[in-house]
Amino acid sequence: MPDPYDDTYTESQVIMTAVKIIAPFTLTYGLFMTFHGGGAPGGGFQGGTIVGVTVLMLAFAFGIEPTRQWLRNSFLVGLITGGVVIFGAIGLGMIALGGNFLEFYQLKEVFHIKPKWGLEAIEIAGISLIVSGVMISLFFSMAAGFSPERPSGTGGREESADRGVSDDD
């Protein structure tokens, strides 16, 4: 009996070549948007999204499983966790300096630097890592799909056949 859940990946030289050409530009643009920061349109969320989409584009062109093996789950978890830790550390650092969570004006009072550098650190080091990691992880999770085997007791067709119940009943 043929497997009804076969892999739908088809190698296309056109798509692979196009992605090889486009991916460096989209990655560069994503990093530009990330480093552009809070001073203008752009920032960590938009840049992280574009970087994540670049990885998704590579997965579509060269196969999801090879890309999943290239970006191990531990790397993606580290990316997300690192972003959350950086975000939290900066926010809690502002509390340690005598302000509120993410109150960047404490940077001016204590270190005599512009408060915008706190926002830049959050956008570049925290949010962009979280967004790109979550986006890639969600894609891999959805691409994994579901297992076609059902646990017993779910009322599946096999269980009905065992009890002598037909679909016509």
From TrEMBL:
This is Monovalent cation/H+ antiporter subunit B. PANTHER family: NA(+)/H(+) ANTIPORTER SUBUNIT B (PTHR33932), NA(+)_H(+) ANTIPORTER SUBUNIT B (PTHR33932:SF4). Residues 148-169 are annotated as: Disordered. Residues 15-136 form the Na+/H+ antiporter MnhB subunit-related protein domain. The keyword rRNA processing does not apply. It comes from Natrinema limicola JCM 13563. Residues 156-169 have a biased composition (Basic and acidic residues). GO terms for cellular component: plasma membrane. It is a multi-pass membrane protein.
